[in-house]
Amino acid sequence: MIHKDRTAPVGVFDSGVGGLTVAREIMRQLPDENIVYFGDTARVPYGSKSKNNIIRFSRQIIRFLETKSVKAIVIACNTASALALDVLKEESDIPVIGVITPGARAAVKETRSKKIGVVGTEATIRSHTYSKVITEMEPEASVIGKPCPLFVPLVEEGFAKHHVTDEIIEYYLKEMKHSDIDTMILGCTHYPLLRSRIMEYFGKDVHIVNPAYETAMDLKALLVGQDMDNDSGNLARYEFYVSDTAEKFKHFANSILPYNVETIQQINIEEY
Q1: DSSP for 95-152?
Q2: Phi-psi region of 146 (alpha: psi -120 to 50; beta: other; left: phi over 0)
Q3: CA 249 to each of CA 110, 150, 211, 244: distance values in angstroms, whole numbers, following the listed order
Q4: From the CA atom positions of the chain, what is the Rg in Å?
Q5: 111 is in an annotated binding site
Q6: Does 21 count as an annotated binding residue?
Q7: Which of 39, 219, 260, 272 has its C-alpha lying 20 to 30 A from 62's C-alpha?
Q8: Cα–Cα distance, 114 to 119 (Å, whole number)
Q9: Cα(229)–Cα(223) distance, rounded to whole angstroms?
Q10: What pTM was estimated for this model as a whole?
Q11: 259 closest CA partner among 27, 36, 26, 29
Q12: Is 77 assigned a catalytic role?
């Protein structure tokens, strides 16, 4: 469906604050686009939930975003992209894109050894979605996946710069560090908030891929290709909604985003 109103917002959603790393990149690369962001802070993390629940949560969020008349939706969550994207694309009249294909494409472009590491939630790694997408693009690629379930709570609870995070990185990634990968995908939108610590741990020989930039570029191509990009010249508007802990989310948003967030609205997502 071609959306008639080019000034309509783009919907972006995640299980919590991680998707703000994608929203931040959309703000940078598509500065004219209005954004409605939803963080499912009442039900974070998604990585330990079943596929059926992830699909149910995602359907509720899409229904909420549709009430905001969004023209496209970005699933800024690797777990929901891995487990729900195909279903949501079939069911929705609005274009829906995820973060996995853009991240996989960037890694395939970057790797020289064709050995790629992926870190993500338990659900994302268990789905093997990254492996499937990468090997479709580069059949000779070898993919090592590692679930890092504590990374999301470390970010959500504000421990990204705490020394305990370095210990958890070592605990999860020591085997990958001693493998022969030359590229690693941060396969959860929370993980870029640990990027500098992870880069420090791996050193300069491993290229770290943050799918947020590639996702923003995919969104741009989609909007321009369907004549849906906002060319009004008006200042972009951003709205933020959460299912719980609005004040905590606001504090995080202001530490991540390039402008000051003044209002976060809390909604009951179970009503959708």
Answers
A1: -EE-SHHHHHHHHHHH-SSSEEEEEE-HHHHHHTHHHHHHHHH-TT-EEEEEE-TTHH
A2: beta
A3: 34, 19, 22, 9
A4: 18
A5: no
A6: no
A7: 260
A8: 16
A9: 5
A10: 0.92
A11: 27
A12: yes
Question: Tokens 């963080």, residue?
Answer: 39
For the chain, the domains span: 10-98+213-271, 100-211
Q: Is 86 annotated as a binding residue?
A: no
Beta strands per DSSP E along the chain: 10-14, 35-39, 72-75, 96-97, 115-120, 142-147, 183-187, 207-209, 238-242, 265-266
Check whether 79 is labelled as a binding-site residue.
yes
- The active-site residue out of 23, 27, 55, 77 is 77
Q: pLDDT tens, 2-26?
A: 556 999 999 999 999 999 999 999 9
The question of whether 188 is a catalytic residue gets the answer yes
Specify the fold of 100-211.
Rossmann fold (3.40.50)
Catalytic residue among 26, 119, 141, 188: 188
Query: Any binding-site annotation on 78?
Result: yes
Give the tokens for residue 164: 């305990």
Domain at 10-98+213-271: CATH code: 3.40.50.1860
